[in-house]
Please model this.
Amino acid sequence: MTLSFEQARACVLREVSAGRGNLPTEKIASLDAAGRVLAEEITADRDYPPFRRSARDGFAVRAADVPGELHIIGEVRAGEVFRGSVCAGDAVEIMTGAPLPEGADAVVMLEHTERSGDRVKVPRSLQPGENFNARGAEAKQGNIVLPAGCRLDFAKIAALAMVGRECASVYRRPSVAILPTGDEIVEAGQQPEPFQIRNSNAWSMSVQVARAGGDPHILPIARDNYESTRGLVEQGLTHDLLLLSGGVSAGKYDIVERVLADVGAKFFFDRVLLQPGQPLVFGTARGKFFFGLPGNPASTMVTFEVFARAAVELLGGANESPLPLLQAKLSKEVRHKTGLTRFLPARLSPDGSTVAPEPWQGSGDVYSLARANAFLVIDPDRESWAAGDMIRVLLK
Ligand code: AMP
Ligand code: MG
Model:
């Protein structure tokens, strides 16, 4: 079955979300959990902030008393509590992060005051609530601060520290089998004959799997015969996800689909209106999802990014897997033959505002992808973009 790019992506997201079942979890140290997917809800153990916290260095006052001249009755620093109360005409010198003394309802910034001895002049007016964070403004005790299914980044790890969680329950990394195919493929450490190609796909896929939160396992290269491919496909299907590269085109020795069918595969699609990467197989067999990615290195890398990555992330417990898309201004004209969605190697300018296509020789050109830092997303139903037009960009 042939699908458009959008249909195929929706299919992958739908099928993997529905079919992933109960995912295994483990408890790990929060400090080691960057990039992992949270398997529990994290709630606030107390109100945040836990007290009325000054956002400025200045004076805690009663808003009704200013403008005016006030009597400084003391000071309060972060980590202290002022023992006493701000009454009419009083001010307490306060530092950023300190709790607002009782009776005060605003903080006037140091820059907006004139002090002499124990008197302070406040020439401007203030609203109650100015320059401090109310207790519980960020989260109330018991509120969910991190939902299950989110990938832990630096700010989320900080949130774990805030609520005192040294350990957290996360989803196990899905085990992903990587199965290169092809009689012409030799391992990267080998000296190839002139007609042979080194196995770069296993390396790119391995890095992409790890980046998506999976645990990559590179299998031996399957040769283009039934026995070799079948044995390794069966081995691959013992993992949570099987990624094949090559052997899915229409050639005489492209036998991956036949082998998959013989192990009971259900195919959701076997072609996508996409370049690079038209022949592209997605399905399930023996309770596991698999992708047959095209073997041309650029096709393998692009189809991983736009399809298999989502599967790895969802199988790793993520509750969503959006594409990192943005818009930038094209620096030169782009035309294409309509009908296919294309992901073309591109360079986004350092400030992210403009994008230029990177010269490339087609699906085999790894060096172009290596130079690129993004992909131009070429919509299938539009023929040309002029220099200066906004265009979608997929971050690499
Ligand atoms: P295929 O999809 O099997 O027809 O492969 C298409 C082309 O991709 C082949 O001609 C190879 O040059 C290249 N190719 C296939 N597998 C790999 C691999 N593992 N590493 C690098 N290039 C590959
Ligand atoms: Mg092949």
In short: The pocket of magnesium ion (ligand 2) is lined by residues 181-182, 246-247, 295 (CB under 6 Å). The chain has a mean pLDDT of 97. The first helix runs from residue 5 to 19.
